[in-house]
Amino acid sequence: MTLKEIKIDKSWTLFLDRDGVINKKIEGDYVKSWDAFEFTYKAPEAIKLLSDIFGKIFIVTNQQGIGKEFMTEDDLKRIHHKMLKEIEMSGGKIEKIYHCPSRDEDMSPLRKPDTGMALKAKTEYPDICFERSVMLGDSLSDMEFGRKLNMTNVFISNKKQTISSKNNMFDLRFESLFEFSQYLCR
Ligand SMILES: [Mg+2]
């Protein structure tokens, strides 16, 4: 089944990973300031298109750079403030950003692949239906997160690597957030 067959409408929710999806990943480092933040190809435009299709869009992002003390909560707040401003200027809307500052070894239930951030969103926005939600991310922990809640999984990868869907980890795969938005608008 493809997403098009599912027919997404305003009753659907989109959960977006951030690093590697909305902004370019920095290998071996964290995005610690706005200067280091770079949108992926046409990401704000993509989010605008997706805002017109989905009822609500949330960002769910692991930010263990905070737990490791490479950056602070305030640093992240500043980055997200500017990011949201750019997205809004393109006509897109992000309902809320959930982040997990904990390090991997802290075993926080909020850290993906655990589902805490989605469950938190559901308590704050009871209309969210996970069966009518899409999780879009660039790592398999994102896909695990989505699978645990019966979401439709969209995997973003621009590498020619052979990550197969043989473990049924994702339903669709695209090179970028923008490509996904184009697919839905077609
Ligand atoms: Mg990512």
Structure write-up:
By secondary structure, this protein is an alpha/beta fold. It has one domain (9-185): 3-Layer(aba) Sandwich (Rossmann fold), CATH 3.40.50. The chain is built from 7 helices and 6 strands. The chain has helices at residues 3-6, 43-53, 64-67, 73-89, 116-124, 140-148, 177-185; strands spanning 13-16, 56-62, 96-100, 133-137, 152-156, 172-174. It has a 6-stranded parallel β-sheet with strand order 3-2-1-4-5-6. It is globular and about 45 Å long. The mean pLDDT is 94. Bound molecules: magnesium ion.
Could you outline the blueprint of secondary structure elements for this entry?
Elements: H1 3-6, E1 13-16, H2 43-53, E2 56-62, H3 64-67, H4 73-89, E3 96-100, H5 116-124, E4 133-137, H6 140-148, E5 152-156, E6 172-174, H7 177-185
Helix pairs in contact: 2-7
Brief synopsis:
Helix content is 34%, strand content 16%. It has 186 residues and is of the alpha/beta class.
What is the helix fraction of residues, given as a range? Answer: 25-40%
Count structural domains.
Answer: 1
Average pLDDT confidence is 94
**Which ions, cofactors or small ligands are bound in this entry?**
magnesium ion
Separate helix tally: 7
Keywords:
six-stranded parallel beta sheet; alpha/beta; binds magnesium ion; globular; 186 residues; Rossmann fold; 16% strand
